[in-house]
Amino acid sequence: LETKELWDKFHELGTEMIITKSGRRMFPTIRVSFSGVDPEAKYIVLMDIVPVDNKRYRYAYHRSSWLVAGKADPPLPARLYVHPDSPFTGEQLLKQMVSFEKVKLTNNELDQHGHIILNSMHKYQPRVHIIKKKDHTASLLNLKSEEFRTFIFPETVFTAVTAYQNQLVSTI
């Protein structure tokens, strides 16, 4: 995880990500670099965002903290965000950072733009996946037959909100 120091600052306060009907970019942005890849191979890099638990939260201003407010809303359709520069060569991945700055988060259940759909006031964990592409496979339909790894960075957990709840988050 690149820019880990920034993520750590947000994580200490309880990271919040704004979601809007039209879609909003994540801040901080998920940026990763890889090692141990085969320079000759091709890789697809993607991201998804999954619920941390089955709870809904509310922000208690007088305590400056998030509290459980009940059971989670029904989960929304899971979406994978395939990095637009995929497939990468292993050589590219060894030399450059992969940034997910174009990912947009929305609360619009009918989104047609490929944005990641989330419920407001729920906690989420972004995950980065890297898949070693086999020459004979044309699509990602069967992940089981592909070599892949998933990376989870606990400091990137966030609460989806339509407006910042903790004033300190907007001062970083």
Automatic annotation (TrEMBL):
InterPro entries: p53-like_TF_DNA-bd_sf, T-box_DNA-bd, T-box_sf, TF_T-box, TF_T-box_CS. One of its GO terms (molecular function) is DNA-binding transcription factor activity, RNA polymerase II-specific. The keyword Electron transport does not apply. It comes from the Eukaryota. It is found in: Nucleus. Residues 1-172 form the T-box domain. Keywords: DNA-binding, Nucleus, Transcription, Transcription regulation. PANTHER family: T-BOX PROTEIN-RELATED (PTHR11267), T-BOX TRANSCRIPTION FACTOR TBX20 (PTHR11267:SF190). This is T-box transcription factor TBX20. It comes from Tinamus guttatus (White-throated tinamou).
